[in-house]
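Backbones bend. Our protein:
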Amino acid sequence: MPQTKVNLTLNYKLNKFDVFFRNVYFGSVDEATNEELNNQEFAGKVVTDLSLGYAISERLKFTLGANNLLDVYPDKNIEANRSSGRFIYSRRSQQFGSNGRYMFGRVQFTL
C-alpha cells in the first residue's frame, strides 16, 4: 500500500448534464521481498476516471464513462520478482489494479 494517496474529484451538474472527474495519485511503493538483490521501487502514478451523464427525464438517465481513462498500469516487476515469468506485475505490493482501462455505459431508471 502506498503511504501517499491524493484524490481530486469534481462532480458537476448543469441542467440535464452532469460530469464526474477524478484524479487519484498513488504514491510509490517498495516490493515486499526478503532478498536485497530483489528490492524494487514502483513509481507513483495518477489514475483518471471520467463520466458524462444526461438526464432524458426526471426518471431516466444515461451515463458513459471510463475508469482509468488513460490506461495507466503499475510498473512491471524486474525479472527476479516475476516467478519464472508468471507475474508481470507485483502480486505483493499493489498501488492500484493492473487491468487497465474500464469503459462503461449505464442506464438509470428511478421508480
User: Anything to note?
Assistant: The chain has one domain: 5-109. The radius of gyration is 19 Å.
